[in-house]
Amino acid sequence: MALPKPLALETAAHKNRSAVAMRIGGMFLALIATSPRFPIEAESDTPPDFGHKQYDEGGLMPYETIIYQEDGPVGTLTLNRPHDGNMFNATMCREVRDCIEAVRGETRTRVLVITGAGDKFFCIGGRKDGLEDTNLYAGVLPTLEMYEAIDRLQKPVIASVNGFAVGGGNVLQVVCDVTIAKESAVFRQVGPMMGSFDAGYGTWYLEDLVGKKKAKEIWYTNPRISAREALALGMINRVVPDEQLEEETRKFALEIAERGAFALAAIKGAFNARHGGVAGLSRVTHDLLLRPYLRTDEAHELSTSFAERRKPDPTSFGH
Predict the structure, then answer these.
(1) How confident is the model at residue 13 (pLDDT cuts 50, 70, 90)?
(2) pTM of this structure
(3) Hey, which residues does 53 pair with through a beta bridge?
(4) What does the alpha-carbon distance between residue 182 and residue 159 come to, in Å, rounded to a whole number?
(5) Within a domain: residue 3?
(6) Is residue 1 part of a domain?
């Protein structure tokens, strides 16, 4: 049965927008693969079969787009879409968020590493196709949920950049607490030249690292930035030979893991409070200060006196 004309037009428009989104994603990969500024080979359109799926701690949910592994105090989250430049899609954004939230709720690990599968791409942005045709949340790629999860996590997060960090991939490494990159890694913001932008974490956090003028230049002109240039700008922390990235990342992570977990949580919370407003401040005052307070003589006396319907003994206050 034929659709009513208005509905048929709307359906056709939706299909057209989806097709355009797919073409833009393909153009992005083509740009990365063929441009002289991105001298790398194009990869196969067929996803490789890595022969495994990773489950969350309870063994309930298979991760389709990421791999999570633990080795001692270090957890490693790998963006696992190398056939597509490790680009975010909605599933990956939510799996990254869920994985980080699971790490937040345990004390086995003390440092989280985020890296990309393969040796060419850390992450080259996000695919917006497949979302609902709306200007509301359902039509937006939920990248902010990943960034917010990184900020909420009390443990330090290391970006281990193993190739191109472009668009949202560069924003991701900027949001991480520290970044180590291999010598051949490349960093670039391409939103305004590709019909997109990240006016939030991608601007404020970059400004914190390189200064307002340089951050504006990076967003306005979209230069290709080498690992050494990024290091000189203060955009990343360390650069190592390509073949030593995994080894040096682990050394970096273990060095951090030897520091006091509560102290690092307090320091990270203080850094994040600057941008986080009441939510950021609450990560310090609630997440870090409330539990120790509940163990004090003062809290115990107030709780007991309330239950016993008597005035509290003020000599316990402050203890």
Answers:
(1) very low
(2) 0.79
(3) none
(4) 11
(5) no
(6) no
